[in-house]
Amino acid sequence: MSRKSIILVALLIISPVIIYFLWPSDEARIRKLFKEGARAVEEEKIDEVTAKVSFNYSDDNGLTYLILKDALGRFFRQLDHIKIEYEITAVRVDDGKAVADIDVRVVASSGADTGYIVGDAGKAEKMTFHLEKERGKWLVAKAEGMKKIMWGQ
Questions:
Q1: Which residues pair with 47 in a beta bridge?
Q2: Which backbone phi and psi does 146 adopt, to 5 degrees?
Q3: How does 83-103 read in b/e, with b if 16+ C-beta sit within 10 Å?
Q4: What is the pTM of this model?
């Protein structure tokens, strides 16, 4: 066997192993989605936030994709200097669906007032996000715990 053939065979054997270890897992992609989403909220970029949400979004509070997008616009007009602290406590992935449990705190300003609008210094607000894989991307399809954020309850 020639030297080129040996190198080619070695590359064919090693390539799948390298791809397997370097390819991001579904959990890593979901964590990245929340990191990018939090940054987009802090920067008040509605289109970047809603790019992380499924057009089929629907939750127990009656929110849909369009209502959520409109509510985000009002939210961003009312508040400034939004800072999000979050900790992903669990991610469970199963057959194109996932659930992420997240502890969230949000600090923002309204005029001269600054304070927690979600959670507080002593306790974060617990939220659960249901995600679905659509067109090869993870998107938020439902959220639990949004009522306090969107409606101030």
A1: none
A2: -75, -20
A3: ebebeeeebebeeeebbbbbe
A4: 0.80
Spell out the alpha helix ranges (H) of the chain.
3-22, 26-42, 46-50, 65-78, 146-151
Token couple for 128: 């659960």
Q: Which two tokens stand for residue 59?
A: 């939750």
Give the pLDDT confidence of 58-105 residue by residue, as tens digits.
Answer: 988 888 999 989 989 998 999 999 999 999 999 999 988 999 999 999
Amino acid at position 1, single letter: M
Pairing of the two strands 97-110 and 113-118:
antiparallel
Amino acid letter for position 72: L
Mean pLDDT of the chain: 88
